[in-house]
Design brief:
Layout: H1 2-25, E1 34-38, E2 45-51, E3 57-64, H2 66-79, H3 121-147, H4 150-156, H5 169-199
Parallel strand pairs: 1-3
Antiparallel strand pairs: 2-3
Length: 208
């Protein structure tokens, strides 16, 4: 389908742009992240830090190919429902039953499995823009993990993250879950600020 090909081309362009943006954003840091687009249909993105034996540091952001297409599939389905985003385009053209659920966790083995498209072209292109913007936010979320030192913290406190072999397991597990939730919330908060800079094409002065 034309919109899938268009989206793939746009993702490739944005991937290149995001690499440059990441380097500008972290230009004052000792480490600039290496951004990789992984040829796998898993819907995954993550950041990580590796410290070599000599103390050299390398930061990574991995975006798996399945993630952008999973996002596209979700928004195409949403915009194919006449009751969704009624102010965008001509929603009356859409015929998808509103009870047809958007299966968020479906794993796409290839982009050809995307079979639901809005009948209104305006809504179809809007779905593409929503998928692009969401992918940008996910990228900024991962960038925030590096910017805020989350990966460093988790690696340096790895021994404290282990579950004890005693009756306090549940309490310790609750603490670990809360810690991860706090880290993800912080990455979301900073990621939103970074995302705003990204979509506003502001790439020079950052202070958080």
């Amino acid at each position: 389908h034309d919109s899938v090909k268009l989206f793939f081309d746009l993702v490739q362009d944005k991937f290149t742009f995001n690499q440059v943006f990441a380097k500008n954003f972290l230009k004052d840091n000792s480490a600039v992240p290496n951004v990789f687009f992984i040829n796998s249909m898993e819907s995954v993105a993550y950041a990580d830090t590796f410290i070599g034996e000599t103390g050299n540091r390398v930061d990574y952001i991995f975006i798996f190919a399945g993630l952008p297409f999973a996002l596209l599939n979700i928004f195409l389905r949403i915009l194919s429902q006449p009751t969704s985003f009624v102010d965008i385009g001509d929603h009356s053209k859409e015929l998808l039953d509103q009870n047809d659920k958007v299966r968020i966790y479906d794993i796409l083995e290839n982009p050809n499995q995307i079979t639901v498209f809005p009948r209104c072209k305006v809504r179809e292109y809007y779905a593409i823009e929503l998928a692009k913007s969401t992918l940008d936010f996910i990228f900024c979320h991962e960038l925030a993990h590096l910017f805020r030192g989350h990966c460093d913290y988790l690696k340096s406190n790895k021994r404290h993250m282990r579950l004890p072999h005693d009756t306090d397991v549940n309490h310790k597990l609750d603490d670990i879950i809360l810690l991860y939730q706090a880290i993800e919330f912080d990455a979301d908060l900073i990621g939103l600020k970074v995302h705003w800079n990204l979509i506003s094409s502001i790439g020079k002065n950052f202070s958080y």
